[in-house]
Each structure stands twice: as structure tokens, then as C-alpha cells.
């Protein structure tokens, strides 16, 4: 079974973000890491490969430096990398990103596409569904478990009060949530093996994409403004005389603010 | 601090740091408190291939060398001195002598299991009456047919009881260094016993104690190196072992320094964080400078070792300086924490207790000075 895992390189997750004049994240200002949500997708892919055999390919759209973060995915155990990199891609939005990934996937043979549920930089969570739509594939999003059997993929999806079971024929796209598994750490042998694994770099011409279809030119959305999250307000200290009183004050607070 | 590291060594550092920070750090205080051997963390280290870093690839290791080894030990020691010494002793003095001296058969039999962490290694030289004066050891190995019969007591043995393979130095000939041979003694061999783990000042969770050899029959094929070469086996092991101990000391010092800087930024006295006071700034400046110097000396010795150049002098100087630095820096870290540094609810006193051992084991720092002076006097 051949699996393609879409992996995004994102700025280091915990650092406060800097923005450029175009309201886009200044990526050069931060250390680049594998999107933490994608690590779950990589792990899901590796587990399915261990069960069913086949190959796991890492697909990334990003600057050429993204090869460094792709190596981490390869060190975890993925077999090869595909990097779509072209200066014209700068400024791409979710739609154009999905289009570029779709064009790259049209050249591949696969049974399953796995993605994280969202990226930690933009956090739209739109690319997985858009990608499935462009490829005309069943889209099984927000999976908290993934099983493949007899040409079908089944996932569980957490909903209020329980879970849904969703099934579709392969090839299909599945986005996984955090907690679907525990991503493995790369071992030293994995790190050493990753050096020798192949990362193929593709530009727009190879994917038969016109530069004006993608990047800022082809984007269907525009970031108009960026506002920092309001500073955390100081908390309120209560000094109840008994646990019962403490419970009552907290329950009242939750009710008044409609948390319960 | 990454200057001089290859991309591969940087990835090893990142992998070791992730292991240390995410898996080991949350357990470190508990291991210190309970004194429990962290078998689960040793297993996790094995899964990441950290236990075969000195072992050749043909025997299942990664053969990444001593510099990579030093980088990895520092990362672990920066959060847990105890786990660092468990893993360090396993790889250096517990495994490396087999790489250096083992027959093909011995390598095939033991190295893959040591590299995979299926076996934990240990090294048994010190005796109750024979510490720094190692050549005076009294444990005997009497040859009887195709085997040796070992009798004696070893003490201060790291990984005692939990290790599966012990490299034991015993006397096969006359007095002095030339009468000593090395043996591979497996846990489970008849007559091999262990004393209770000692109650140490620090490094809790890393069991240290006695090995009791009572007519232990060791087959001839378990003699490591030629008969009479045991002292050389031991000294060679300690030479490169000192790189690991230096790295452990650098890690302990760095860990304490990081904690002290973090604390000094947050602790407010006289209306400002204490890091704003020159008295504290001068302390942390000296601490950081010493840590960096200790690391560079450690890496220098490791690089010489990896390049198959003489490194005895460099390793002894690194061990002396790095472990003294660990003691000074961890003590100053406690000082910066003030009263909070002296109580066990805060982590820095653990670093100070752990650091003390590094000035003593693998050759006291007094012995290091003798080694350094002798190397200089040789003048070749």
C-alpha cells in the first residue's frame, strides 16, 4: 500500500509570531520545524506501512530549506520525499496550496493520502478537504483512528457524546487529529538512513502549472489585517472560608459566564 | 555551541535533546527521590539506538564515535546525572573494551546485544583495598584446565546487579600491573553475587555496589585480551571513559546553569529580577564561560580519540577541568537559588550532589593530575 503524507514546514510553534508588511508570517525570523500536527499523520502512515507493506512518501510544498525538516520525517522512517519548490509559490493561500499538492499527486500512484488536521501557523484546516476535492477523492477528515482493509479506509471521528465511524473506498484522503497515535522519535539509525534517502525537488514547470495560477497572484484570499491576541487579563483571587463556598463561587462564575 | 559539529552530529544532538527533555526530564526528580533504577528509560534509550553509539555497524551499532557520544551524554546529564552515568558506563567502559580487545567470537556474542540494549554493561576494577592504586588489586583468577576460577570482591561498581555483563579485572600472574587479566563475566554465572546498592550522596537510581566473586568459573574464551594485558585493557577503557565522564560533567554544569539563569530572571528582590544585579551577572558569566571551556576540552579529546590520535593527555585534562567546573557551577547555581537552592523541592541541589561524584570516579582528579604530569614528562 502506497501512502503519501503531506507535511508542512512551519515556524517553531511556541515562539511569538512576527508579521511582514503584507500581513504574512515572517518565516525567516523563526526556526523551521515539521508541523507538529503532521507528525501524527507521518506516524499513522508508518504504522499502516508496517501492517500492510508498501511505501511512505513525504510531500511538501515549501522553500528549498524545507528539505531539512523533511529529513526528520524520513528519519522517522518514511521512504522518500517530494518537495515542490518554486519562487512563484510565495504568497499561496489554502486553495492554491491544495492545487499545487494535487498537481504533484496526479503524478504519483497512491492508495492513501494522509495529512495533519491543520498547521500550527495558519490553523485554517482547509487544505485537506480542498485537496480531496481537487483530486475527486473521498475525504475523511479529523480521524482519531485509521484502518485500511479490502480497499476501504475506515476512520473514527470524535463528536459530542461519542464518535462517528466513516468509511470510504481507497484511494482516499484522511486527515488525522492530535492523539491518533504517539509519533515516534527518530532513532540514530533512522537519522543516518535518512541522509541517504531521496528527496525529489519539483518546480512549477514540471507540474505544468503557470506561475500566475499560484502564489499571491493565484490566491483566492487575502489577509487584510493581523491583530495580536489580547493580553491575558489578570485573574480573580477568591478567598472562600470553606470548600463548599469555593465550589458555589466557581459554579456561579461558570453559570454567569455561560460556561455551563 | 554547535560550532564544529557536523550536520549528522547536530541531528544526534537534537535527537538526544528531545529524548532528554521530553522523556527523561519529567522523571529525573522522581528517580532521585525513589532511588529506583530507571529501566524504562534505559529501554527508551535503546529504542533510539543510543546504546550502540560506540559499536561498529557490523555488530548492530552506529559507530558514530566519541564526539557524538559526548554530545549525547551531555544532553542526558543536563537533566539527569544518574541516567547519564548508567548509559555512559554501559557504552564506554562497559562495551568499548570488547570493541578494542575482543576476539571475533566475543564481538559476535556480545556486541549486538550490548548495542541493542538487550544487555547492560559494567566495568569492575576497583576493590575495597585497591582504588587509585588499581595495579594492587587482589581478586584472583586461577587457571584450571580450560577455565579460570575467580575469587575476590569488587566495589563501587556502577550498574551493579542490573548489568548483564561485567568486565572484571583479576590477577592471573604475579604482583603489579603485568599480572592482571580481563574477563567477561556474565550475570547468572555460578558464584557471582552482588552486595546491596550503596547509599550515595547523589546519582540516586544509578546502582553502585559490590560484586562478590566466589569460585566463579569463567571459560577461557571469556578472557578479554591476552593473559597479563588486563591492566592495559582497563587503562585504555578509562582513557576514553574519561571523555564520557567529562561530557556528563559538562551536562550537569549546563543543566544547573540554565536553571540558575531562568531563576535569576524571575526572582525579584529589591524591586527587580536578581539577574539585574552585577553580583549575579558576574557569577553566571563565569559559570557560562567555564561550561563552554569544559565542553570544548571534552570535544577536543573526543575528536582526537575519533581521529586515532593520542588523547590520554587531552582526556585527563578535560576530565579534571570539566568535573571541577561541574562542582563549581552547580555550587554557584545553588547559591543563586539561595534558600530555595538548598531544599529538595528545587532541582539544583540534585545537580550539586551528582556533580561531586564526577571529581572522584574514573580516576580521582588527583590521579588525573598525575596522568597529565606523566604525559608531559614523557616528552615524546
How would you sum up this structure, described in words?
The complex is a heterodimer of chains A (260) and B (380). In chain A, the strands form 2 sheets. A 9-stranded mixed β-sheet of chain A has the order 9-8-7-10-6-1-4-5-11, sandwiched between helices. Chain A has a two-stranded antiparallel ribbon with strand order 2-3. The longest helix of chain A is centred in the first third of the chain and has 17 residues. Chain A has a single domain, classed as HUPs (Rossmann fold, 3-Layer(aba) Sandwich). Chain A is α/β, with parallel strands linked by helices. Chain A has 7 helices and 11 strands. In chain A, helix 2 links the parallel strand 4 and strand 5. In chain A, helix 2 crosses helix 5 and helix 3 packs across helix 4. Chain A is globular, with a radius of gyration of 21 Å. The mean pLDDT of chain A is 92. Helices cover 29% and strands 25% of the residues of chain A. Chain B is an alpha+beta fold. Chain B has 3 domains: 109 residues, Acyl-CoA dehydrogenase/oxidase, N-terminal domain (Butyryl-Coa Dehydrogenase, subunit A, domain 1), CATH 1.10.540; 108 residues, Butyryl-CoA Dehydrogenase, subunit A, domain 2, CATH 2.40.110.10; 147 residues, Butyryl-CoA Dehydrogenase, subunit A, domain 3. Chain B is 52% helix and 15% strand. In chain B, the strands form 3 sheets. In chain B, strands 1-4-5-8 form a 4-stranded mixed β-sheet. In chain B, a hairpin with a 2-residue loop joins strand 2 and strand 3. In chain B, helix 3 runs antiparallel to helix 4, helix 3 crosses helix 7 and helix 7 runs antiparallel to helix 8. Chain B is globular, with a radius of gyration of 21 Å. The mean pLDDT of chain B is 96. At the A-B interface, helix 5 of A face helix 1 of B.
